[in-house]
Design brief:
This protein is α/β, with parallel strands linked by helices. Helices cover 38% and strands 15% of the residues. The chain has an eight-stranded mixed beta sheet, sandwiched between helices.
Amino acid sequence: MPTSTRSVSIIVPSLNEEENIAPLVSQIIASAVPFREILFVDDHSTDATRDMVRALAESQPIRLIEQDGADLGLAGAIMLGARAARGEILLVMDADLSHPPELINDLLAPLFAGTADMVVGSRYVKGGSTPGWPLWRRIVSRVGAALAYPLTGVHDSMCGFFAIPRSRLLELAPPASGFKIAFETIVHGGRTLSVREIPIAFRDRVRGKSKMSFGVALQFFLRWSRAMLRHFVRGPYRPEHTAGSIITNVRIDPESFRG
């Protein structure tokens, strides 16, 4: 396998996803994704999520990063994984199977070809969809994406399914955990970051309990609105993107380390 295709680290934040860990890894492998490692960054799971990751790490290039004592949130977990990653390219996705593993290669292809600096799996370009979502969730998500568009030039900058060179993410992401890493990275990158969107169907979870509720979505939307207001006050830029098809008490489990 060429060196370039061995340089992908897949970062998966997790919280009580014991039922989804094994199916996710199986689907990634079945999709023939060229990856160097899968990094599960676990946020105080109280079920058997960590045990599942450790068991799979015995036969697969998987690492477990435990956030014990660190309240980093989703964005902080992604950045923790990015700093620990050994691959040159990062692929970020959810643990609940809402992001399609079969499209990981589509996100990676423009980066390998050098035609984009970042690729986002988009629900809101032609061909993208959110099947099974309740109306309130669709409204909150679409409004947030629409408000972000003038700042990013991207239709779905809130999506958590994206690929980017590790060096660019570490360079552009905020020093403190932002609300959405993809959004913050695109805004900070400005004209220097070429972004491509690939349509995806964002599936609702089949196993496990969703962390999303109307109250959580509303709280996030209010925080998101304040974040965007700060960016508007600083002054919006005119992006030239392309749309197309201090860490404490964090432990990396040595028994799950591979490579």
